[in-house]
Amino acid sequence: MANQTDTQAVAQKPPREKLFSKKNIRVLTEPLSDNNPITFQVLGICSALAVTVQMNTALVMSLAVTFVMTMSNVTISVLRRHIPSKIRIITELAVIASLVIIVDEVLKAYLYDISKQLSVFVGLIITNCIIMGRAEAFALQNKVWPSFLDGLGNALGYSWILLVIAFGREVLGSGTLLGFQVIPEFLYQAGYENMGLMVLSPGAFILLGLLVWIQRTANKTVGE
Amino acid sequence: MQHSNAYTFKFAAMVTIACSVLLAGAATMLKPRQEENVALDIKRNILASVDIKAGAGESLTRDDINRLYKENIQEYVINSEGDILQDKDPNNIDFDKNPDLKPLYEFVKDGQIISYIIPISGKGLWSTIYGYLALEDDVTTIKGITFYQHGETPGLGGEIDKEWFKSNFEGKRIRNEEGELISITVIKGKVENKIPPEERYHHVDGISGATLTARGVDQFLEKDLNTYEPFFRKVMQDEGDHNG
Known about the structure:
The complex is a heterodimer. Chain A is mostly helical.
Protein backbone atom coordinates (compact mmCIF):
# COMPACT_ATOMS: atom_id res chain seq x y z
CA MET A 1 0.00 0.00 0.00
CA ALA A 2 2.67 2.42 1.03
CA ASN A 3 4.73 1.44 -1.99
CA GLN A 4 1.84 2.14 -4.26
CA THR A 5 1.37 5.73 -3.09
CA ASP A 6 5.08 6.31 -3.42
CA THR A 7 5.17 5.26 -7.04
CA GLN A 8 2.09 7.32 -7.72
CA ALA A 9 3.73 10.39 -6.27
CA VAL A 10 6.78 9.86 -8.41
CA ALA A 11 4.66 9.39 -11.48
CA GLN A 12 2.79 12.62 -10.85
CA LYS A 13 5.90 14.69 -10.38
CA PRO A 14 6.78 16.64 -13.53
CA PRO A 15 10.15 15.79 -15.09
CA ARG A 16 12.95 17.52 -13.19
CA GLU A 17 14.14 20.72 -14.81
CA LYS A 18 17.80 20.85 -15.71
CA LEU A 19 19.95 23.19 -13.61
CA PHE A 20 20.93 25.23 -16.60
CA SER A 21 17.85 24.90 -18.72
CA LYS A 22 17.18 27.59 -21.30
CA LYS A 23 14.68 29.20 -18.98
CA ASN A 24 17.14 29.36 -16.09
CA ILE A 25 19.88 30.76 -18.29
CA ARG A 26 17.51 33.48 -19.38
CA VAL A 27 16.72 34.28 -15.75
CA LEU A 28 20.43 34.77 -15.20
CA THR A 29 21.34 36.70 -18.35
CA GLU A 30 18.32 38.88 -18.98
CA PRO A 31 19.14 41.38 -16.22
CA LEU A 32 22.66 41.75 -17.63
CA SER A 33 21.45 43.70 -20.62
CA ASP A 34 17.85 43.52 -21.94
CA ASN A 35 16.31 43.93 -18.52
CA ASN A 36 19.16 45.60 -16.66
CA PRO A 37 18.00 46.90 -13.28
CA ILE A 38 19.89 50.19 -13.63
CA THR A 39 19.85 51.08 -17.31
CA PHE A 40 16.49 49.58 -18.21
CA GLN A 41 14.41 49.61 -15.05
CA VAL A 42 16.31 52.65 -13.72
CA LEU A 43 16.42 51.35 -10.15
CA GLY A 44 19.23 51.69 -7.63
CA ILE A 45 20.40 54.97 -9.14
CA CYS A 46 21.21 56.62 -5.82
CA SER A 47 23.98 54.22 -4.92
CA ALA A 48 25.20 54.11 -8.52
CA LEU A 49 25.84 57.84 -8.21
CA ALA A 50 27.27 57.79 -4.72
CA VAL A 51 29.88 55.05 -4.69
CA THR A 52 31.31 55.31 -8.19
CA VAL A 53 33.94 58.00 -7.65
CA GLN A 54 36.55 55.25 -7.32
CA MET A 55 36.79 51.71 -8.61
CA ASN A 56 37.53 50.11 -5.27
CA THR A 57 34.47 51.47 -3.50
CA ALA A 58 32.33 50.47 -6.48
CA LEU A 59 33.87 46.99 -6.41
CA VAL A 60 33.20 46.46 -2.71
CA MET A 61 29.70 47.86 -3.10
CA SER A 62 29.07 45.45 -5.99
CA LEU A 63 30.23 42.49 -3.93
CA ALA A 64 28.07 43.59 -1.01
CA VAL A 65 25.00 43.97 -3.19
CA THR A 66 25.67 40.63 -4.91
CA PHE A 67 25.87 38.87 -1.57
CA VAL A 68 22.76 40.52 -0.19
CA MET A 69 20.68 40.07 -3.32
CA THR A 70 21.44 36.37 -3.89
CA MET A 71 21.11 35.50 -0.22
CA SER A 72 17.87 37.40 0.22
CA ASN A 73 16.37 35.83 -2.90
CA VAL A 74 17.35 32.37 -1.68
CA THR A 75 16.06 32.94 1.83
CA ILE A 76 12.76 34.41 0.68
CA SER A 77 12.34 31.59 -1.80
CA VAL A 78 12.99 28.93 0.86
CA LEU A 79 10.39 30.57 3.09
CA ARG A 80 7.96 31.42 0.30
CA ARG A 81 5.27 28.89 1.30
CA HIS A 82 5.51 29.86 4.95
CA ILE A 83 5.49 33.64 4.74
CA PRO A 84 2.01 34.93 5.61
CA SER A 85 0.98 37.28 2.81
CA LYS A 86 -0.16 39.91 5.31
CA ILE A 87 3.35 40.50 6.58
CA ARG A 88 5.37 39.49 3.55
CA ILE A 89 6.87 42.91 2.86
CA ILE A 90 8.14 43.38 6.39
CA THR A 91 9.48 39.83 6.40
CA GLU A 92 11.40 40.52 3.19
CA LEU A 93 12.68 43.69 4.75
CA ALA A 94 13.80 41.89 7.91
CA VAL A 95 15.73 39.36 5.87
CA ILE A 96 17.36 42.02 3.69
CA ALA A 97 18.16 44.30 6.62
CA SER A 98 19.79 41.48 8.58
CA LEU A 99 21.98 40.58 5.62
CA VAL A 100 22.97 44.19 5.07
CA ILE A 101 23.91 44.67 8.72
CA ILE A 102 26.07 41.56 8.57
CA VAL A 103 27.84 42.91 5.49
CA ASP A 104 28.34 46.26 7.20
CA GLU A 105 29.81 44.66 10.32
CA VAL A 106 32.14 42.46 8.30
CA LEU A 107 33.37 45.44 6.28
CA LYS A 108 34.02 47.41 9.46
CA ALA A 109 36.07 44.52 10.79
CA TYR A 110 38.05 43.60 7.69
CA LEU A 111 37.97 46.51 5.22
CA TYR A 112 37.86 49.46 7.59
CA ASP A 113 39.10 52.12 5.18
CA ILE A 114 36.67 51.20 2.46
CA SER A 115 33.83 50.91 4.91
CA LYS A 116 34.61 54.47 6.03
CA GLN A 117 34.44 55.67 2.45
CA LEU A 118 31.21 53.82 1.74
CA SER A 119 29.82 55.13 5.05
CA VAL A 120 26.03 55.20 4.95
CA PHE A 121 25.74 53.64 1.53
CA VAL A 122 26.25 50.11 2.81
CA GLY A 123 23.36 50.63 5.20
CA LEU A 124 21.34 52.08 2.37
CA ILE A 125 21.55 48.80 0.44
CA ILE A 126 18.49 47.97 2.56
CA THR A 127 16.51 50.53 0.61
CA ASN A 128 17.98 49.52 -2.75
CA CYS A 129 14.81 49.03 -4.74
CA ILE A 130 16.34 46.27 -6.87
CA ILE A 131 16.74 43.88 -3.95
CA MET A 132 13.28 44.37 -2.52
CA GLY A 133 11.89 44.28 -6.04
CA ARG A 134 13.46 40.91 -6.85
CA ALA A 135 12.35 39.40 -3.55
CA GLU A 136 8.77 40.52 -4.09
CA ALA A 137 8.51 39.96 -7.83
CA PHE A 138 10.55 36.79 -8.26
CA ALA A 139 11.64 34.94 -5.13
CA LEU A 140 8.15 34.79 -3.62
CA GLN A 141 6.82 32.86 -6.63
CA ASN A 142 9.78 30.77 -7.70
CA LYS A 143 11.83 27.84 -6.55
CA VAL A 144 15.13 28.28 -4.78
CA TRP A 145 17.51 27.66 -7.70
CA PRO A 146 15.88 30.03 -10.19
CA SER A 147 15.62 32.61 -7.41
CA PHE A 148 19.33 32.26 -6.77
CA LEU A 149 20.06 32.78 -10.46
CA ASP A 150 17.69 35.72 -10.63
CA GLY A 151 19.38 37.38 -7.65
CA LEU A 152 22.82 36.73 -9.06
CA GLY A 153 21.85 37.95 -12.53
CA ASN A 154 20.38 41.18 -11.25
CA ALA A 155 23.30 41.76 -8.92
CA LEU A 156 25.75 41.26 -11.78
CA GLY A 157 23.67 43.51 -14.00
CA TYR A 158 23.86 46.17 -11.28
CA SER A 159 27.57 45.55 -10.68
CA TRP A 160 28.84 45.85 -14.22
CA ILE A 161 27.08 49.16 -14.73
CA LEU A 162 28.53 50.39 -11.44
CA LEU A 163 32.02 49.31 -12.42
CA VAL A 164 31.83 50.87 -15.88
CA ILE A 165 30.72 54.19 -14.41
CA ALA A 166 33.37 54.01 -11.69
CA PHE A 167 36.01 53.23 -14.31
CA GLY A 168 35.09 56.33 -16.30
CA ARG A 169 34.83 58.54 -13.24
CA GLU A 170 38.10 57.47 -11.66
CA VAL A 171 40.15 57.66 -14.85
CA LEU A 172 38.70 60.98 -16.01
CA GLY A 173 38.20 62.53 -12.58
CA SER A 174 41.34 61.49 -10.70
CA GLY A 175 43.62 60.04 -13.38
CA THR A 176 43.92 56.83 -11.37
CA LEU A 177 42.60 53.28 -11.52
CA LEU A 178 42.12 51.36 -8.29
CA GLY A 179 44.35 54.00 -6.74
CA PHE A 180 47.22 53.63 -9.22
CA GLN A 181 48.17 56.52 -11.49
CA VAL A 182 47.20 55.69 -15.08
CA ILE A 183 47.38 59.08 -16.74
CA PRO A 184 51.12 59.58 -17.33
CA GLU A 185 52.87 62.55 -15.78
CA PHE A 186 53.94 64.10 -19.11
CA LEU A 187 50.31 64.60 -20.10
CA TYR A 188 49.78 66.73 -16.99
CA GLN A 189 52.87 68.70 -17.86
CA ALA A 190 51.50 69.17 -21.35
CA GLY A 191 48.47 70.85 -19.80
CA TYR A 192 46.08 67.96 -19.24
CA GLU A 193 43.84 68.36 -16.24
CA ASN A 194 41.63 65.97 -14.32
CA MET A 195 37.96 66.54 -14.99
CA GLY A 196 36.56 67.86 -11.72
CA LEU A 197 33.00 67.27 -12.89
CA MET A 198 33.52 63.51 -12.84
CA VAL A 199 34.23 63.54 -9.12
CA LEU A 200 30.82 65.08 -8.45
CA SER A 201 27.47 63.34 -8.86
CA PRO A 202 26.57 65.05 -12.16
CA GLY A 203 29.52 63.22 -13.71
CA ALA A 204 27.87 59.93 -12.84
CA PHE A 205 24.56 61.14 -14.25
CA ILE A 206 26.18 62.00 -17.56
CA LEU A 207 27.99 58.65 -17.84
CA LEU A 208 24.86 56.77 -16.83
CA GLY A 209 22.83 58.67 -19.40
CA LEU A 210 25.35 57.79 -22.10
CA LEU A 211 25.23 54.12 -21.06
CA VAL A 212 21.43 54.03 -21.23
CA TRP A 213 21.56 55.68 -24.64
CA ILE A 214 24.16 53.27 -26.01
CA GLN A 215 22.32 50.28 -24.63
CA ARG A 216 18.95 51.30 -26.03
CA THR A 217 20.43 52.04 -29.42
CA ALA A 218 22.32 48.77 -29.56
CA ASN A 219 19.44 46.70 -28.22
CA LYS A 220 16.57 46.76 -30.65
CA THR A 221 14.42 44.60 -28.35
CA VAL A 222 14.52 47.27 -25.69
CA GLY A 223 12.37 50.29 -26.22
CA GLU A 224 8.90 51.55 -25.86
CA MET B 1 -2.42 30.85 0.70
CA GLN B 2 -4.36 32.38 3.57
CA HIS B 3 -2.74 31.99 7.00
CA SER B 4 -4.45 32.43 10.35
CA ASN B 5 -3.65 35.39 12.56
CA ALA B 6 -2.11 33.13 15.18
CA TYR B 7 0.21 31.69 12.55
CA THR B 8 1.13 35.18 11.37
CA PHE B 9 2.09 36.21 14.90
CA LYS B 10 4.06 33.04 15.43
CA PHE B 11 5.88 33.53 12.13
CA ALA B 12 6.70 37.14 12.92
CA ALA B 13 8.08 36.16 16.32
CA MET B 14 10.24 33.47 14.79
CA VAL B 15 11.66 35.78 12.12
CA THR B 16 12.41 38.40 14.73
CA ILE B 17 14.20 35.96 17.01
CA ALA B 18 16.18 34.38 14.18
CA CYS B 19 17.33 37.79 12.89
CA SER B 20 18.30 39.09 16.32
CA VAL B 21 20.27 35.98 17.25
CA LEU B 22 22.10 36.13 13.94
CA LEU B 23 22.94 39.83 14.24
CA ALA B 24 23.87 39.71 17.90
CA GLY B 25 26.20 36.82 17.13
CA ALA B 26 27.85 38.59 14.22
CA ALA B 27 28.26 41.84 16.14
CA THR B 28 29.79 40.14 19.18
CA MET B 29 32.18 38.08 17.11
CA LEU B 30 33.43 41.00 15.03
CA LYS B 31 33.57 43.59 17.79
CA PRO B 32 37.18 43.08 18.95
CA ARG B 33 38.49 43.47 15.45
CA GLN B 34 36.37 46.54 14.77
CA GLU B 35 37.59 48.23 17.94
CA GLU B 36 41.14 47.45 16.97
CA ASN B 37 40.54 49.11 13.60
CA VAL B 38 39.20 52.25 15.22
CA ALA B 39 42.17 52.43 17.60
CA LEU B 40 44.55 51.87 14.72
CA ASP B 41 42.91 54.59 12.67
CA ILE B 42 43.35 57.05 15.54
CA LYS B 43 47.02 56.15 15.84
CA ARG B 44 47.53 56.54 12.11
CA ASN B 45 45.99 60.00 12.20
CA ILE B 46 48.03 61.13 15.19
CA LEU B 47 51.14 60.03 13.32
CA ALA B 48 49.98 61.76 10.15
CA SER B 49 49.53 65.06 11.99
CA VAL B 50 53.29 65.11 12.63
CA ASP B 51 53.97 63.97 9.09
CA ILE B 52 54.83 60.35 9.80
CA LYS B 53 52.94 58.57 7.08
CA ALA B 54 53.17 56.26 4.11
CA GLY B 55 54.50 57.65 0.85
CA ALA B 56 52.25 57.96 -2.19
CA GLY B 57 50.90 54.61 -3.28
CA GLU B 58 52.17 52.82 -0.16
CA SER B 59 50.31 51.97 2.97
CA LEU B 60 51.35 51.24 6.51
CA THR B 61 50.57 47.81 7.90
CA ARG B 62 49.10 47.27 11.33
CA ASP B 63 52.49 46.43 12.72
CA ASP B 64 54.11 49.49 11.15
CA ILE B 65 51.55 51.78 12.69
CA ASN B 66 51.80 50.20 16.13
CA ARG B 67 55.59 50.29 16.05
CA LEU B 68 55.88 53.88 14.80
CA TYR B 69 53.32 54.99 17.31
CA LYS B 70 55.12 53.33 20.17
CA GLU B 71 58.47 54.76 19.11
CA ASN B 72 57.35 58.33 18.59
CA ILE B 73 54.22 59.18 20.50
CA GLN B 74 53.62 59.53 24.22
CA GLU B 75 50.13 59.75 25.63
CA TYR B 76 49.02 61.91 28.55
CA VAL B 77 45.90 63.14 30.23
CA ILE B 78 45.61 66.75 31.31
CA ASN B 79 43.03 68.44 33.54
CA SER B 80 41.30 71.78 33.02
CA GLU B 81 44.13 73.61 34.82
CA GLY B 82 46.56 72.31 32.27
CA ASP B 83 48.41 69.90 34.57
CA ILE B 84 49.52 66.53 33.30
CA LEU B 85 48.06 63.70 35.38
CA GLN B 86 50.81 61.12 35.37
CA ASP B 87 48.73 58.29 36.79
CA LYS B 88 46.13 58.36 34.03
CA ASP B 89 46.12 56.62 30.66
CA PRO B 90 43.98 58.24 27.92
CA ASN B 91 43.03 54.83 26.57
CA ASN B 92 41.18 53.95 29.76
CA ILE B 93 39.23 57.17 30.17
CA ASP B 94 35.84 58.00 28.78
CA PHE B 95 36.35 61.67 27.92
CA ASP B 96 32.64 62.21 27.34
CA LYS B 97 31.96 61.36 30.98
CA ASN B 98 34.93 63.36 32.27
CA PRO B 99 34.68 66.71 30.48
CA ASP B 100 37.45 68.15 32.69
CA LEU B 101 40.02 65.72 31.40
CA LYS B 102 41.55 65.88 27.93
CA PRO B 103 43.94 63.62 26.07
CA LEU B 104 47.28 65.04 24.99
CA TYR B 105 49.85 63.43 22.72
CA GLU B 106 53.50 64.34 22.46
CA PHE B 107 55.79 63.56 19.56
CA VAL B 108 59.10 62.83 21.23
CA LYS B 109 62.36 62.16 19.45
CA ASP B 110 65.63 61.39 21.27
CA GLY B 111 64.13 62.62 24.52
CA GLN B 112 63.16 65.96 22.97
CA ILE B 113 59.55 67.03 22.64
CA ILE B 114 59.11 67.95 18.99
CA SER B 115 55.42 68.53 18.95
CA TYR B 116 52.18 68.61 20.97
CA ILE B 117 49.16 66.96 19.39
CA ILE B 118 45.58 67.66 20.40
CA PRO B 119 42.33 66.20 19.11
CA ILE B 120 39.99 68.63 17.37
CA SER B 121 36.34 68.10 16.54
CA GLY B 122 33.19 70.02 15.86
CA LYS B 123 30.30 70.57 13.51
CA GLY B 124 30.91 71.28 9.86
CA LEU B 125 27.94 71.74 7.58
CA TRP B 126 26.44 68.24 7.61
CA SER B 127 28.48 66.31 10.08
CA THR B 128 30.85 66.32 12.99
CA ILE B 129 34.42 66.62 11.76
CA TYR B 130 37.20 64.89 13.71
CA GLY B 131 40.90 65.48 13.42
CA TYR B 132 44.19 66.17 15.14
CA LEU B 133 46.24 69.33 15.31
CA ALA B 134 49.99 69.23 15.96
CA LEU B 135 51.84 72.29 17.28
CA GLU B 136 55.60 72.76 17.34
CA ASP B 137 57.31 72.85 20.74
CA ASP B 138 56.79 76.63 20.86
CA VAL B 139 53.01 75.86 21.09
CA THR B 140 52.50 78.62 18.53
CA THR B 141 53.40 77.26 15.11
CA ILE B 142 51.26 74.60 13.48
CA LYS B 143 53.20 71.51 12.51
CA GLY B 144 50.36 69.69 10.86
CA ILE B 145 46.66 68.95 10.86
CA THR B 146 44.53 65.99 9.87
CA PHE B 147 40.82 65.56 9.41
CA TYR B 148 39.88 61.93 9.42
CA GLN B 149 36.19 61.54 9.92
CA HIS B 150 33.57 63.75 8.34
CA GLY B 151 30.46 63.61 6.19
CA GLU B 152 30.91 66.83 4.24
CA THR B 153 29.98 67.08 0.56
CA PRO B 154 32.62 65.35 -1.57
CA GLY B 155 34.37 67.87 -3.78
CA LEU B 156 33.24 70.82 -1.66
CA GLY B 157 33.47 70.63 2.14
CA GLY B 158 34.92 67.15 1.73
CA GLU B 159 38.08 68.78 0.39
CA ILE B 160 39.16 69.44 3.98
CA ASP B 161 40.79 66.03 4.12
CA LYS B 162 42.78 66.70 0.94
CA GLU B 163 46.48 67.28 1.09
CA TRP B 164 46.43 70.80 -0.37
CA PHE B 165 44.05 72.05 2.29
CA LYS B 166 45.83 70.41 5.19
CA SER B 167 49.30 71.54 4.11
CA ASN B 168 47.84 75.03 4.00
CA PHE B 169 47.99 75.07 7.82
CA GLU B 170 51.64 74.14 8.16
CA GLY B 171 53.79 76.94 9.53
CA LYS B 172 50.80 79.12 10.43
CA ARG B 173 50.68 80.60 13.91
CA ILE B 174 47.90 80.47 16.45
CA ARG B 175 49.32 83.41 18.49
CA ASN B 176 50.21 87.01 17.80
CA GLU B 177 53.56 88.58 18.70
CA GLU B 178 52.44 89.08 22.31
CA GLY B 179 51.67 85.40 22.67
CA GLU B 180 47.90 85.82 22.84
CA LEU B 181 45.80 83.07 21.32
CA ILE B 182 44.02 84.20 18.16
CA SER B 183 43.51 80.85 16.40
CA ILE B 184 43.34 80.37 12.65
CA THR B 185 40.70 81.55 10.21
CA VAL B 186 39.81 79.91 6.94
CA ILE B 187 39.12 82.71 4.50
CA LYS B 188 37.31 82.84 1.18
CA GLY B 189 39.82 82.63 -1.63
CA LYS B 190 43.59 82.80 -1.41
CA VAL B 191 45.43 84.30 1.54
CA GLU B 192 48.06 85.99 -0.62
CA ASN B 193 45.40 87.95 -2.51
CA LYS B 194 43.15 88.94 0.35
CA ILE B 195 45.09 89.32 3.57
CA PRO B 196 47.74 91.95 4.39
CA PRO B 197 51.18 90.38 4.88
CA GLU B 198 51.38 90.94 8.64
CA GLU B 199 48.24 88.87 9.24
CA ARG B 200 48.90 86.04 6.83
CA TYR B 201 50.21 83.82 9.57
CA HIS B 202 46.73 83.49 11.04
CA HIS B 203 44.77 82.73 7.88
CA VAL B 204 44.57 79.81 5.48
CA ASP B 205 43.20 79.49 1.93
CA GLY B 206 39.54 78.57 1.74
CA ILE B 207 37.67 76.00 -0.32
CA SER B 208 35.30 77.48 -2.85
CA GLY B 209 31.76 76.31 -2.26
CA ALA B 210 32.47 75.28 1.32
CA THR B 211 31.94 78.46 3.33
CA LEU B 212 29.90 76.76 6.03
CA THR B 213 32.31 73.88 6.49
CA ALA B 214 35.11 76.42 6.80
CA ARG B 215 33.15 78.40 9.37
CA GLY B 216 32.72 75.19 11.37
CA VAL B 217 36.45 74.53 11.20
CA ASP B 218 37.18 78.08 12.44
CA GLN B 219 34.83 77.65 15.35
CA PHE B 220 35.98 74.31 16.61
CA LEU B 221 39.66 75.14 16.17
CA GLU B 222 39.21 78.18 18.36
CA LYS B 223 37.15 76.23 20.90
CA ASP B 224 39.60 73.35 21.14
CA LEU B 225 42.67 75.59 21.28
CA ASN B 226 41.07 77.51 24.12
CA THR B 227 40.42 74.27 25.98
CA TYR B 228 44.10 73.42 25.83
CA GLU B 229 45.30 76.99 26.46
CA PRO B 230 45.96 76.46 30.21
CA PHE B 231 48.33 73.65 29.30
CA PHE B 232 50.02 75.67 26.54
CA ARG B 233 50.46 78.59 28.96
CA LYS B 234 52.32 76.30 31.33
CA VAL B 235 54.53 75.04 28.51
CA MET B 236 55.40 78.62 27.55
CA GLN B 237 56.10 79.51 31.20
CA ASP B 238 58.47 76.56 31.54
CA GLU B 239 60.23 77.58 28.36
CA GLY B 240 60.65 81.06 29.74
CA ASP B 241 62.05 79.69 33.02
CA HIS B 242 64.56 77.55 31.22
CA ASN B 243 65.71 80.42 29.07
CA GLY B 244 65.89 82.83 32.02
